[in-house]
Amino acid sequence: MRKLILQGVILQGAFTFLLSVVLVTAYAKEPLKLHPENPHYFIYDGKPAVLVTSGEHYGAVLNLDFDFVTYLDTLAKDGLNGTRTFTGVYVEPDKAHNIQNNTLAPVAGRLISPWARSGEPGYANGGDKFDLTKWDAEYFKRLKRFMTEADRRGIIVELDLFCPMYNESIWAVCPMKSSNNVNGIGSVAWNQVYTLDQEPALLAIQEDVARKIVRELNEFDNLYFEVCNEPYFGGITPGWHDRIVDVIRETEKDLPKKHLISWNVQNGSAKIESPHPGLSIFNFHYASPPVTVAMNYGLNKAIGLNETGFKGTGDDYYRNEAWEFMLAGGAIYNNLDYSFTVETPDGTTTPADPTPGGGGVTFRKQIAILKRFLESFDLIKMKPDADCVEGDGDYALSEPGKQYAVFIRESKGQTIRVCLPKGEYEGYWIDPVQGSKIEIAKFRHSGDVKELQIPKTLANGAALHLVSM
Predict the structure, then answer these.
(1) Are 234 and 166 in contact (CB under 8 A)?
(2) Most buried among 122, 134, 382, 393, using CB within 10 Å?
(3) Sign of CA dihedral 159, 162, 168, 172
(4) Residues 6+ apart with CB under 8 A from 4
(5) CATH second-level architecture of 385-468?
(6) In CATH, what class is 33-381?
(7) What pLDDT is stored for residue 392 in this prediction?
(8) Domain residues of the chain, as ranges?
(9) Where are the alpha helices (DSSP H) in 219-335?
(10) Could you tell me which residues come within 8 angstroms of residue 274 by beta carbon, excluding any fewer than 6 positions away?
(11) CA distances from 14 to 10, 19, 64, 421 (A)
C-alpha cells in the first residue's frame, strides 16, 4: 500500500510538472500579451514583462543605410528590450524637427518602402516614383529580417503603421503624395491624408498596406502594432483611426496569431474615454508620469510612455521620468535616443543642440538599472501605492505586507516614513545612476510607520527594494 501511495505521489508530481511545462510552453508560443493576472503589465515568453528601452528615431527599417543588426546588438548588450520603428509609409526630409543625423530621413535614393518603385523617375527624394499597386519584395525581406534579429535578442518591436504629415515639407516626400507615385493617388492637402471622406482611393491604399504588413508579420511574437504615431496632429480623424484598428483585427481574424494594438493617445496627459475595444495599449508622449497613469489605471490595460524629448540633451530629466513613470504603474518606457545614427548605429554619438532630446551609452546603462530593479520583484502582484510613503513627490508599487518598490527623486540623506504592516523585512537601497546597492539591516516592525534613512551617498535619487521575510 505504501508503495502504491508513493507511486501515486510521484505520478501526481510528474503530472503537475508536465502541466506547468505545457502552460509555460503555451504562453511561450504566443505573441506579447497583457498578463491575465494583471493586465497593466505584459506576459512574453511565458514570463511577466515590462518594456524599458532607449531607441533610435524610427528609421531602422526604412533607411537602407542604417545597420539595424549593430543597433539591436547594442540594445541587447545594454540590457534593454524594446524598439519603436516606422514602416516606410512615412518619411522625413533632412533636418525635420531640428533633428541632426535623423535616421528617419534617409539620403536621396535610400528610402525603402512597402511599395515598389515604378521605373519612372521623379520621386522627390531621389529615384523612381512609387507604384502603390505593387509591393516591394526586398522591403518585406528587410522588415522580416529586422523582426527576426530583434526576436533573437529578446527585443519587442512596436511597429507604427502610419504617422501624420506635420507640414507640407513632410508630405512632399511621402510616397502617397500624387507627385511621388504613378497612380495619381494622393491629391489631398497635407492635413487631409488620413480621413474617411477625402479621397477613397487613398484610404483604400492605406487599408491595403495595413493588411499586407499585418499578414506578413503574423508569424512574429515580439510585436505589437501602433496604428499611428501622434494621430492628434495633422487633421487625422478618430473615425479613420478606428477604421485601421478594425482592419488589423479583421486581417488577423483568420490568422494564427493575434497581436496587441496601441493607441498613441496624447502629448502630456489625457483621460481616456470610451476607447475602441480592440485597443490594449495606451501610449503617451512627453507625459506627466503620475497623472497619466493614475488617470487611466482603471482601464486595466497597459499604459506607456513611448516617446520623450524637449527637455534638453542631458540624462537627469529622462532618467527621473523613467523611474517615476514605471513606479506610477506604467508598462512601457521608451526614451527617444538620438545617439543612434547611420554613422553610429551602436549609439555612440553625443546628441547636441538643436536636436530636441538626449540618449547615449551612459543613459542606456542607467535605465537598464530600472529594468533590472522592476524585474527583481513579483511585479504582477504589485500596484501603485500612493500612500506607501508619507509626503509628496515619491512613487511606489507594492504588494502590501510583502514587497515594496519606492523611488525618491530628491534624495539628500533624509529620513522617509514608510507605512508597513507588522512583520520582518529586509532590503536594500539602489543608486539609479550607478546601480550600486546599499543593504538595509533586517528588521522586525510592529506595524504602522517605519522610518528609514536614505544613505547620504545617494545624491541623484534613490530607489528602495523592500520585502518581507
Answers:
(1) yes
(2) 382
(3) positive
(4) none
(5) Sandwich (2.60)
(6) alpha beta
(7) 66
(8) 1-30, 33-381, 385-468
(9) 238-252, 289-296, 316-327
(10) none
(11) 6, 8, 52, 38
